[in-house]
Design a protein that fits this description.
279 residues; alpha/beta; Rossmann fold; 3 domains; 11 helices; 19% strand; binds zinc ion
Length: 279
């Protein structure tokens, strides 16, 4: 009799350059050692872990004496990477499952044993992000003085899926400065990235006009844009632009506000970006 014990897969993730920026100050520190930790990720019918080798650094800043770094897509101290979180959101928001079904489907397909509490945490974070950051981003775009802001219909449909009373949905309908255009078929180069319908539609549209810039925060969507040589800007980049053209007096308070409303920004990236505008 064979056992049904699932196969465990370890995926090595090196994240220990000789020098790395302090997550708080952004100042480079020198590596003094490396450690490893395992973070659960997603693989169909496998128990998959990222085996992260991360650096510990001697800091040269005032805020700390030592610090550690974490790879993109893995929050500090998290037991699950962002792919697990995204999967929970997909099942819940796109596939319309209830929490029990989300838990059950992830257990069956990805051998993930998640708690109800974990799912609630992921949903709570997302709800705040959707309600506030989406709204603020649009206001920022306008303030940043982009000549024309185009929204593919697929993004509108995604927002509409949250109900006609949704504040972002209503805001879009009211926004005369926003031009809604039909969704184009997703080109094969975008389809292979398996992104959300909204992100795919933004990229498909951007491919037709080389002068435009895609506004995307999703990490994989941004990578896809870079591969396709599409100019891309995230919410953080918009704030910096708004400061540069004088629409807002300073960027940091706006960034902090976005953070409080649930937008996830990596500390050292934020600090490096704000340093560009002298903050
Ligand atoms: Zn520091």
């Amino acid at each position: 009799m064979g056992t049904d014990a699932p196969t465990t897969v370890l995926i090595p993730v090196p994240c220990a350059p000789m020098r790395a920026p302090c997550p708080t100050s952004g100042k480079l520190g020198k590596r003094k050692g490396t450690c490893t930790r395992q973070v659960r990720t997603v693989a169909f019918k496998f128990v998959a872990y990222l085996r992260i080798t991360y650096g510990e650094y001697t800091a040269q800043c005032k805020c700390c004496t030592t610090f550690r770094i974490t790879p993109e897509g893995v929050l500090p101290k998290a037991h699950y990477d962002n792919k697990v979180r995204d999967l929970v959101l997909d099942r819940f928001l796109k596939d319309g499952m209830n929490i029990d079904r989300v838990l059950e489907s992830l257990r069956c397909e990805f051998l993930l044993e998640l708690s109800t509490e974990f799912v609630y945490g992921v949903l709570r974070g997302r709800a705040e992000q959707l309600d506030m950051a989406g709204h603020r981003r649009k206001v920022l775009l306008l303030r940043a003085g982009a000549p024309e802001i185009i929204l593919p219909d697929a993004v509108l449909q995604e927002v509409r899926g949250r109900g006609a009373a949704d504040p972002v949905f209503q805001e879009i309908l009211r926004a005369v400065w926003l031009k809604i255009v039909p969704t184009l078929p997703t080109p094969a180069q975008v389809r292979v990235w398996n992104l959300g319908a909204g992100e795919s539609s933004v990229l498909a549209l951007s491919m037709t006009d080389r002068d435009c810039e895609a506004v995307l925060d999703d990490r994989d969507a941004r990578r896809c844009a870079q591969t396709l040589k599409i100019g891309v800007r995230g919410t953080l980049g918009l704030v910096v632009l708004a400061k540069q053209i004088g629409s807002i007096p300073s960027a940091r308070p706006v960034v902090e506000q976005l953070r409080r409303s649930g937008l996830y920004l990596i500390d050292d990236v934020t600090n490096q970006t704000l340093a560009l505008v002298g903050e």
